[in-house]
Design brief:
Layout (H helix, E strand, L loop, with lengths): L14 E5 L6 H9 L9 E3 L2 E4 L12 E5 L10 H6 L6 H14 L15 H13 L5 E5 L7 H17 L3 E6 L2 H7 L2 E6 L2 E6 L1 H6 L4 H7 L3 E8 L2 E4 L2 E4 L8 E6 L4 E5 L16 E10 L3 E8 L5 E7 L9 E6 L5 E4 L2
Helix pairs in contact: 4-5
């Protein structure tokens, strides 16, 4: 994937996450920073020092940049201690002290003389982290390093890794296609699509003030309500929405996440009264209901145009198929975009 006009700045002790779908240019960006690939234009600096432009290029091994990948890339013929010490310079005593320090921090002092093949996946990942941190890199580049771990183990390893990186005051750039991982680890998220950064900011802002409909949908399932702007307003079955700046006749997408739909049982065919927060109620017929563990997922066929909307409800809520319910939407949780 071609990377187009990407500009990023990362700080010591902070995690910046490159988040986006497969093939959007995340790993290519990392490879250019690491020096594996060379960019066609632009410059890369570390601590204010130019390390690469289109002519000048410091070799990867002299960039003081650590790398971690999903396959760990440990040397099978070397012990854990020798793997961690591989990139270190100095006396044998200095190397041994740094190896012991890091293995103690990742809880693997007991495995110092073992070989990688006797360790679990999570333990190998921690050895890889210790090896990457051993030379005290200014920057740590991490390309989906947790994707090979099972879900239960992944959260614990991620948290331990994040704590150690913060302790070492390392500037981190993490690549992932998983929004949950980005939200869990990042101080800042750069959302990529088609080789470009389409939005950058703190996780809270990226999630609650998305740049476009695709940005909303990348973090969660969405419902889309169609409308047409007229006089800076768009009429929908759920009431009117402000659409300033859109020409009369412009098509509008009103996007809302399933957890922000509110449900109520039919009250004699009238439904709940409109409110400033929830707007007008629209009736739907239950077509599917499933319990998902922490919540229930309920799908509706809406009376107004036979479209499908999906709601998620905390705990167990499993209305029978063909049950009529009234839906309102959290207006303060809606996102309004010009339709594409």
């Amino acid at each position: 994937m071609v990377v187009d006009d990407v500009s990023l700045s990362i700080q010591p002790g902070h995690v910046t996450c490159l988040l986006g779908p497969s093939g959007c240019g995340k790993s290519t960006t990392l490879r250019m920073i690491a020096g594996v690939d060379m960019q066609d234009s632009g410059e890369i600096y570390v601590d204010g020092q130019l390390i690469c432009d289109t002519v000048f290029r410091i070799p990867p091994e002299r960039r003081h940049i650590g790398l971690m990948f999903q396959d760990f890339a440990l040397f099978p013929h070397l012990s854990v201690a020798d793997n961690v010490a591989f990139g270190l310079s100095g006396s044998k005593e200095v190397k041994r002290a740094r190896v012991s320090e890091l293995l103690d921090k990742v809880g693997l002092s007991w495995a110092i003389n073992d070989y990688p093949h006797v360790l679990s996946g999570g333990e190998q990942q921690r050895v890889a982290l210790a090896r990457a941190l051993a030379p005290r890199p200014r920057i740590m580049l991490m390309d989906e390093p947790f994707s090979g771990l099972d879900n239960r183990l992944r959260d614990a390893i991620r948290d331990q890794t994040l704590a150690l990186l913060k302790e070492e005051d390392t500037a981190v750039m993490l690549v992932t296609h998983e929004p949950e991982e980005a939200m869990r680890m990042a101080d800042e998220i750069a959302l990529m699509r088609g080789g470009k950064i389409v939005q950058q900011g703190a996780p809270y802002n990226i999630y609650n003030a998305p740049a476009d409909r695709e940005a909303v949908a990348f973090f969660s399932d969405v419902n889309v309500i169609k409308g047409t702007s007229n006089g800076a307003l768009t009429d929908t079955p759920f009431g009117q929405f402000l659409t300033p700046g859109l020409a009369d006749g412009a098509e509008v997408d009103i996007v809302i996440r399933p957890q922000h739909l509110k449900l109520d049982f039919d009250r004699g065919g009238k439904g709940p009264l409109p409110t400033a927060t929830d707007g007008v109620a629209a009736r739907g017929i239950v077509t599917r209901a499933r319990f998902m563990g922490n919540e229930s997922l309920v799908e509706f066929r809406m009376d107004y145009d036979n479209s499908t909307l999906t709601a998620t409800v905390p705990n167990v809520f499993l209305p029978a198929i063909d049950t009529p319910l009234w839906l309102t939407i959290r207006r303060d949780r809606c996102f309004v975009f010009p339709a594409k």
